[in-house]
Known about the structure:
693 residues, alpha+beta, two-stranded antiparallel ribbon, 9 strands, 9% strand, magnesium ion binding
Amino acid sequence: MDQPFKNEPLWVPTGDDNLRSESPTSRTDRRHSSSASTSTGTTGDSSDTSNGRGRRSRPSVASASSQLPTVREKNQQRALSLNSVNKPPSLAKLGSDETVVSSKKVLTNFSKVATRNVEKEEARRQKLDRYNQENNGQREVYNRLKRWADAKEKGIKERLLSWVVPSYRQPPLPHIEELKSLARHYYTPRSELRCHVCDFGEGRAEHKMVDLGQLEEYWQTKPAWVDVRWIHAPLGIGLTHSSVEDIFLHDGPTGREFEAAARSGWPYMETEVLNFRHRDNSQEMRDVYLLLHKKEALLQDLNESTWKADQNASLHSDVDWRADHMALDPNYWTMVASDMPWQLSEGLAMGTGGSPKGGFREINRHIDKQILSSHPFYKDALLVRNPFRTFHRSDGFLLTLSPMAGINYLDKHFSRYLAEPIDAIFDNDDASAVGHVYQAFAEQGTSTWHRRTVEWFLVYLISEVGVTPHSLRQGHNAPAMETAYSSVIQDLKRRRYDTWQPNKTVQLVREYLSGIDELTTIRVNFTKKVEFFTVMQQDVKKHEADDTRMRKAPDNPDGESSIERVSWALKMVEEQLNVFDRLLLDLKQSMDALFQLRSIEQNELAIVSDSQNKAIMVFTVVTVIFLPLSFFTSYYGMNLSGIVNTVKTEGYFWKVCGSATLLIVLFTALSAFRHQLRRVMRSRMMKRPSLMV
Length: 693
């Protein structure tokens, strides 16, 4: 695997960059090119005290909310304004210390945002080394388990060879303790599941990691300086998910209602997030689950580890009650099954009606073969889907639940990010949208927010996550998903004109069908998102109207409002939907053309075959007539003494031989046409009035 970090040169603006910044179109189009500028430090972070990996920080989606000018920058801005006070307004060229953020000109210092934080880089490198070392050890156990499982499916030939050739013999099953460790590695026990607690206050932000077994105390109270506490738990839809959300909402006052966007009868908002996982990791998760979840020898210890670290007041008992109510067995495997990402072919995860059973589905061992992986950039990637749900309270608490642990942002280091352990994705704000949202406000806290409320942050978060995956944040330095699909479709269209071959043509049709299935699922996903952001737009407009009527002024008038944020997200998903609509239509028309072309080829082959059949028919007729005659002539003309000296007459001879000949021919004909005769008899029986009951 590539090294997680390389010594990259500091980014220095050039004349071309200034010219690009001067473009009036870019002033409006780039306002949402990223969700926020990457901050250089994390105030009060319990695990990491600073940020920065030597990257250029991209402009913010959040109006001016990603970066407020420092005192020195304000002085520079004031000096610039004094120098230009007598000049007429114009679209002036931006200097090296300016950038466009959400159509507002905000001073930033490139030397500041490009500063590398060596300590944080080293800490993350060490964390990745620990994760990779553990992964390598567990992957060795997994490979032995897989060889054992594959050997059990061998045929008779391999089993016979196993007596002679040692390589064909059944490998041993890994030790029971190794299997327990393997299960816990790929599926963390619920009480030990690592959750993120992010606090945001004026000019300050803190982040800490806590176990799910301690999570209840973190949504009871928060420090006085905290405006919003965001808790993110990587839970899929299931028993634990249902209990956590219910206890969270019960322990605090109800939040401001999103009447149109929230689900009817359920106080939460939900979207479905597309993200990328490594194909090998997805295959390993499925193999471990399917090969181990029925082994009784593992279950007792795994069940004990589920709640071993639980210190919550009511989570365990609530899960047990909910399992009894839903007629489910709350064992280890039932609790962790929702961690597995949904494939595109596994139905829609969104719209389950709030039931804990909505996260369960039949799990196949083998993952789908996606045509997107035929593109070189996505060769190791698997496009998966995960639900993302939000729950908020009026006392400033926000709870988000989603097992999403894949790549949201497409970057030139995409293959490197795919190979990173999923536990480390949150720390990589170049890959994770959830991690990036925290980093966007890690330095300034709520100082840049339009309104310092949980509702504003909720809208910001769900709109940032909901429009992914995309390559906007890194300045389109990687092929977008729709671009890759377009390239793959063009290759399929080119292969239509290859010479017809039985196996290759069938494989080509399968790729067409696979592509249609993928694009259809993606299109449905974006259609639901368009509907979601459309109704959310109604809610935020109502909220703004209510605030205006109540004379609640925004905390930061220059910050991006919720209306602007949702409008941007809606425009993004509408554009993506339009692109995939065109791609799906193009692929369907291309497959229709393929069938028409193959039909014409088959007609031409049929014409040639018909002329050949006519020539063969002559020989067939001659053969049918004279072959039996020659056979019987030679057979009955045999000079046998028994026939010559018989006392029977010649008539008796022909009676016996003629009857035998007729029976042989009749039996042969019935055998040859037995299937057709059976169909005729069945159809006649079905037409009888007595059988039409």
